[in-house]
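We modelled the chain as a single entity of 70 amino acids. Its sequence is:
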Amino acid sequence: MQTQTIGVYFIMKKLHAEVITVGSIVRLLYKAARTANDVSKVSSGKPSRVAKRAANKAVGRGLISKLFFK
């Protein structure tokens, strides 16, 4: 329960610090969803899920850097 309260506080603080646009809200929500997925995989306690999540993140970052930062 404490983690959710901190997350909501962070989102509200972030929204008040910037100009609020639809894009900034969507970006923030996607970032929160990715972080929640990471926490979910680590808290599951299954090493295979943690390893799979880490591998997928590494592959994704590698592809993005090759596509957009030539």
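As a brief sanity check on the tokenised model: The first helix runs from residue 2 to 17. The chain has a mean pLDDT of 79.
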